[in-house]
């Protein structure tokens, strides 16, 4: 029988085999051991507090059983009884709630549901969630602890007949081999759970894009072409629900069913074990590709701002979840201990590595790792690049050509601000598929008579417009004018709104290196008043402004984007425009959860 958890993963009813956790106490923790709790705590308590713990669905049964045992043995801290409420919560849902609370922006995550509440302790499936929140702008988000309590390697799951054809289980396979398979003329049908919403999908995406980048010099057209090809191959069979993706694997041994079914997907080892335990017609093989992808590491994150008594209780609960007995509880859920070893009852897939047999690359023996070992820049680039390359939109790109754009950029080998801006826009153009509609304007002051802007290319589908845009970008040169920001923003907004297209994100992306300097144009107050009147919630136009250098006024830019929706991004180093551009494009209006 197949059951579906809160993450919509397919799960089997695996029988629990964990030993009961020993009761604990804070006094004993301070002393370095918590085993003397039952002798220290009496049956009476002076009060009662409830510690709320939100965990990824697959580990929730193990955490709940250990916590229940602790509570039944008389959990207390400083004379106060502890109750523990363990909830099965989608990591993406908790991440959305935490992001909303701390003012962070996570590409592809969307808004928190109205009922979402941040817990005292969060055990997501991966430390990548903690890294994304921090790098997404949650400067006050600093959970204590964060050490791993479990582990599940990320694998590539293939139907066993398909895996056998490419050498499993005898041949050592690499991510470059998978890249060759999914981008071939007769490609392997690969799929993915949305990597902006799923940690295993993100881990697989990072590994596959790294393999694509190695096909040429970093940032070269060849490397970008390989990366975009891999992203679009995955996007063809992407799913927002893991249950839906798993259902696409062949459900019959008929050769036609195998040929037409899903051929590969990045999943966790636990997913493969749970899927195969349902005795499907075609079992899944778990391929442990090299270089090893980021595993799911289940950090125990005590969120900031909780009261001291709860923080003390959380420290003791963490110790409970690091006992040998908890390893057996994890095994009953097809999960490993943090060091990569497993408890009694764990059914390892064929070819599964372990520290005992030399598979330390997949499961670091230290069991530490966590957020400190992850690269925030690589994660941010992967999520934003995915969002850009796999979404569809309608965009007007507006580039400043005022005289100050002639200034050289010290960090770009002396190239001018104009040149690095055009280069970033040109490189970004390669990520958009033909379903996008894009136009190109430039602006300064009095660029066409008294008009501050000039249309180089109208907004049309890239299927017929890509060459015109490339030629338009190549033709851009700085003028001798000033920055006619306000008149240009108003005209661009009216233009995009005029031909608003349903089913797409309609947006303006404007690059500028200065403040409004058009004394003869519209005032800031008049601009904001006009935008407020033009704004239509049924037909939103998102305005994204990328400020370059030290002369921009962030408050001026944000006054515009607060009215229109979108965002203002400012970089004092113009050579960073490329990565800022990707982040900006990925900032699409999220649907409410």
Automatic annotation (TrEMBL):
Transmembrane segments: none annotated. Residues 337-377 are annotated as: Disordered. It comes from the Bacteria. It comes from Micromonospora marina. This is von Willebrand factor type A domain-containing protein. The lineage of its organism: Bacteria, Bacillati, Actinomycetota, Actinomycetes, Micromonosporales. Gene3D superfamilies: von Willebrand factor, type A domain. Residues 394-585 form the VWFA domain.
């Amino acid at each position: 029988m197949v059951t579906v958890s809160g993450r919509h993963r397919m799960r089997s009813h695996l029988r629990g085999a964990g030993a009961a956790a020993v009761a604990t106490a804070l006094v004993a923790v301070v002393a370095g051991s918590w085993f003397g709790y039952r002798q220290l705590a009496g049956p009476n308590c002076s009060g009662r507090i409830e510690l709320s713990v939100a965990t990824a669905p697959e580990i929730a049964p193990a955490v709940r059983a250990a916590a229940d045992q602790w509570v039944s043995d008389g959990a207390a801290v400083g004379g106060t009884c502890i109750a523990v409420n363990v909830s099965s919560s989608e990591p993406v849902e908790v991440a959305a709630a935490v992001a909303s609370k701390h003012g962070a922006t996570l590409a592809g995550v969307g808004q928190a549901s109205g009922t979402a509440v941040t817990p005292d302790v969060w055990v997501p499936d991966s430390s990548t969630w903690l890294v994304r929140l921090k790098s997404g702008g949650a400067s006050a988000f600093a959970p204590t602890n964060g050490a791993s309590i479990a582990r599940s390697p990320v694998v590539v799951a293939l139907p066993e007949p398909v895996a056998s054809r490419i050498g499993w289980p005898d041949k050592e396979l690499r991510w470059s081999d998978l890249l060759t398979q999914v981008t071939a003329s007769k490609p392997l049908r690969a799929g993915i759970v949305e990597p902006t919403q799923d940690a295993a999908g993100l881990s697989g995406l990072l590994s596959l894009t790294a393999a694509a980048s190695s096909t040429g010099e970093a940032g070269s057209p060849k490397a970008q072409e390989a990366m975009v090809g891999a992203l679009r191959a995955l996007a063809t069979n992407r799913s927002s629900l893991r249950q839906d993706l798993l259902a696409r694997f062949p459900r019959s041994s008929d050769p036609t069913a195998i040929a037409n079914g899903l051929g590969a997907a990045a999943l966790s080892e636990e997913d493969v074990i749970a899927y195969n335990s349902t005795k499907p017609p075609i079992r899944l093989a778990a391929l442990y590709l090299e270089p090893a992808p980021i595993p799911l590491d289940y950090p125990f994150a005590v969120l900031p701002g909780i009261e001291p008594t709860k923080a003390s209780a959380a420290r003791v609960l963490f110790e409970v979840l690091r006992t040998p007995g908890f390893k057996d509880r994890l095994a009953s859920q097809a999960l490993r201990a943090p060091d990569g070893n497993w408890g009694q009852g764990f059914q390892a897939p064929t070819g599964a590595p372990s520290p005992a047999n030399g598979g330390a690359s997949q499961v670091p023996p230290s069991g530490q790792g966590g957020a400190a070992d992850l690269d925030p820049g690589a994660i941010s680039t992967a999520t934003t690049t995915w969002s850009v390359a796999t979404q569809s939109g309608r965009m007007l790109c507006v580039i400043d050509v005022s005289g100050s754009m002639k200034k050289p950029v010290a960090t770009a080998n002396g190239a001018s601000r104009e040149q690095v801006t055009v280069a970033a826009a040109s490189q970004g153009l390669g990520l958009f598929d033909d379903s996008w509609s894009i136009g190109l304007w430039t602006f300064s002051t009095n660029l066409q008579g008294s008009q501050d802007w000039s249309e180089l290319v109208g907004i049309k589908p890239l299927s017929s417009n890509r060459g015109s845009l490339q030629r338009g970008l190549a033709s851009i040169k700085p003028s001798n004018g000033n920055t006619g920001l306000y008149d240009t923003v108003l005209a661009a907004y009216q233009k995009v709104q005029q031909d608003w297209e349903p089913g797409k994100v309609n947006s303006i992306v404007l690059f500028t290196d200065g403040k409004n300097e058009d004394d003869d144009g519209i005032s800031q107050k008049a601009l904001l008043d006009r935008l407020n009147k033009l704004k239509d919630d049924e037909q939103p136009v998102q305005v994204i402004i990328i400020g370059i250098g030290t002369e921009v006024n962030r408050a001026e830019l944000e006054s515009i984007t607060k009215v229109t929706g979108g965002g203002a991004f400012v970089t004092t180093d113009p050579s960073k425009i490329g990565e800022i551009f990707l982040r900006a494009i990925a900032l699409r209006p999220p649907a409410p959860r």
